[in-house]
Write the structure tokens for this entry.
Amino acid sequence: MNSKMKFKIGEFSRLTGVTVKTLRYYEQIGLIEPDKIDEWTGYRYYSVVQMQTMSWIRSLKDVGFSLEEIRALHEDDTHKPSISQLEEKIRQCEHQLTRLQVRRAQLIQMADSQIKINKMENITIQSLPAIIVASHRRIISSYDDLGPLCVNIIGPEMHRLGCKCPQPGYCFAVEHREEYTPQNIDIEYCEQVEKMGHDSAIIKFKQLKEVPIAVCMKCYGPYDKLYSHYVYLFKYIEQQGYRPIDRHRTCYIDGSWNQEDPEKWLTVIQVPVAKV
């Protein structure tokens, strides 16, 4: 009595992790044929031994052997590649690795060039006119507090004071801290207004002088990425023969208040400079 287990092609496919389509193709090229085909139903049945064969085929494919090479091993009944065949595959891997390393270096160079081009397109040199601003300075725990501060405190107070802002609006923040701190940020928010007003406990009015030369850079992304932009911006300033002469202004154009995707937040950094 034949007690060998038999698996229909679907079950064999599931157990071996090989699609039925692939099994039919392997049968077509003579790589692995069903142990039995029912002459009445046409059902294909596979054995436990063929599960081992399929595992062997997959192992050889994973290390770079072609189906033709695997079939040749199967026909020779060796089932195992020789030392020379394995050494040849190792040489092929080393060659491919060298080619991939060269390609990787080329891709990195292309990406760096594209990043530089994109950033160059986002950098302008312009003058900043003399303006009147309504300002509010305070310590905030993080940059996430800036939006609610503008909406809930600064905006209503400016409205109460009757401030009128020219169009298009211009607002920015200036950091007064001398060193980096992740919290307790000393920040001053400024928004351009048409005329001087009377100071309140919240809002102070001031006249800002013209900035003859400012290097300005558009930055896209969340605020924690601004530091990577600073690196490129100040490198550019140095290369162009400038030096910063005042604290930079950070203009929040698009942020959480009008754009859900942080990658689309637009911030403009403006650095007052002078020629060295």
